Structure prediction request, 201 residues.
Amino acid sequence: MKMPLQLQSEDVQSFERRSNSYENSFLFNFFFDWIQRIALDSIPKGISPENILDIGCGTGRLLRKAAKCWPAARLTGVDPSEGMLKEARRLTPQAQFQLSLAETLPLPDGSVDLVLSTMSFHHWQDQFQGVQQARRVLCPGGFFVLVDIWLPLGLGKIFRHGRKAPPAAVREMFTRAGLEIQAQRRVLANFLLVTVGSRSG
Ligand SMILES: C[S@@+](CC[C@H](N)C(=O)[O-])C[C@H]1O[C@@H](n2cnc3c(N)ncnc32)[C@H](O)[C@@H]1O
Prediction:
């Protein structure tokens, strides 16, 4: 049976509590920053997105990096944590932020040409619904770059926090949602999974 979605799940509340210190944490500066660069490097070369959405944007740091690559692009971030969004709005005044789960994106159909998401997917309560939403808001020809943790070698059984979808399951969700797989690779000794999909029609 499908569980009802919760905006303030325990997971989200834990980010709420950490939102003030998140940007300055060791983990953030040494690990997430680097992961965000991997996400940007995974975007197909030569595209000039006009509308960029970051799902589970946290404090907006990936959008700030995207703004340096595409200064004219309209930037939108969504996240279910008010605290994260408060920081995001303070640090990233050039972007719009909305309180939302990935599963219920408050954006019109076909309104975005690049969807990004880093280190958030394993927190989504209904991952397939989130991928469907990413596909819905993408315009034809648009790209979805998803970067998330993946624990190989059975480590997922030890570190059970979150929903870590194996590569084949992520590909299956993309395809079932109507996204064409453009690339999938594992980085950081296979601990990180990058999946790039596009909406063809
Ligand atoms: C580890 S942080 C990553 C933040 C940011 N993407 C980054 O790379 O720094 C995970 C984020 O996912 C958000 N999140 C949790 N559940 C979510 C959901 N169902 N939909 C979208 N975002 C969610 C959390 O509030 C948190 O800000």
The helical segments are 10-18, 26-41, 61-69, 82-91, 127-137, 155-158, 167-177.
